[in-house]
Amino acid sequence: MVSGKYSALAGSLSREQRLANISTNLANVNTIGYKKSRMSFESLLRGEKQITDAEGINYSRVRENFTEFTEGPIKGTDNPLDIAIYGDGFFKVQSLDGIKYTRRGDFQVDQDGTLLTGNGMPVLDEGNAPIVIPDTDLSKISINSLGEVSILYIDGTREVVGDIAVYTMQDNMYLKRESDTLFSLKEGGKEILAEEPQLAVSSLEISNVNMIEEMALMIESKRTFESYQKVIKAYSQLGQKQDELGTIG
Q1: Which of 37, 110, 141, 147 has the fewest CB atoms in 10 Å of its CB?
Q2: Same-domain check for residues 43 and 148
Q3: C-alpha distances out from residue 28 to 83, 117, 180, Å
Q4: How far is CA 63 from the centre of its chain?
Q5: 205 within 8 A of 197, measured Cβ to Cβ
Q6: Same domain assignment for residues 229 and 176
Q7: How far is Cα 31 from Cα 186, in angstroms, rounded to an integer?
Q8: In which element (H, E) is residue 201 found?
Q9: Does pTM surpass 0.85?
Q10: Same domain, yes or no: 82 and 201
Q11: Which domain range does residue 215 map to?
């Protein structure tokens, strides 16, 4: 009976973790470039061991947390510094603790002319150098679909002052989720520079979280969690009855 109680407790904890995961996704439903997180579960024992070692009572646990990198909806804006990536790919940025990758394209220019993400991180070119724009007047800044950053002059001439680098990964499984919309590349991972990136100018990629889907998952997980709680309570009540019967005579 104790084994069954612990099995229900393991299932309850797994569903509690899943609810926390879903809550994080829902909290980022409007975050630019956010990629939803998912969980997979597994039984602690499988095959014959489930019968011989666990006597048919098994324990579940979270197998892994992983990210779904499907493309989110792209919406147009009036800001020439808003950039979205069509298909696969990431911008490379410089964080306080090293190079990171992001799909967040709500760029801005600081007072020194450095191109930054919406959360204040310098956007890098293919040489891993920050992109510095000599004129911070937005009406004079132009970015094309290949990532070329240019200054437009009154006489109609154009000067390229930087290139926004876009990278794909040999395998996205090597990307580790960091804070906000950032990812780092794990050891063994390989980045590949996109020679001709396809960028949507004056556009932003919205989170790929589907609110209706997440709400359905939350309801299902909550009901499962409540079922496990009822099982745990039932085992506790049976234990109390056993203790009472043991004192007779």
Answers
A1: 110
A2: no
A3: 19, 17, 9
A4: 17
A5: no
A6: no
A7: 24
A8: strand 199-201
A9: no
A10: yes
A11: 2-69+209-246
